[in-house]
Design a protein that fits this description.
alpha+beta, 3-stranded antiparallel beta sheet, globular
Length: 80
């Protein structure tokens, strides 16, 4: 997977497994600096990606869940 995490770009492996299991990382990322709020948000985002253990998909939405089954990140397609 790859993307832009707010300040930096990142990439790394991910795996969708049986029973909707999900694992990601380790990631490599550019090392640019930015405003503290953006850097904090980026750190939280990447941490949530690494902590995700399962997923659910519905229509144009893909949601990652943490170990407790709580939605941590939701992605929605913007393509029409």
């Amino acid at each position: 997977m790859s993307g832009h995490s707010g300040v930096n770009s990142y990439s790394g492996p991910y795996r969708l497994g049986t029973r909707h299991s999900f694992t990601a990382g380790p990631f490599v990322a550019t090392q640019m600096g930015g405003p503290q709020p953006a850097m904090r948000a980026e750190s939280i985002y990447l941490t949530l990606l690494l902590q995700a253990t399962s997923y659910k998909s519905s229509g144009s939405s893909f949601t990652l869940l943490d170990g407790g089954g709580h939605a941590s990140l939701r992605f929605t397609s913007s393509a029409k």
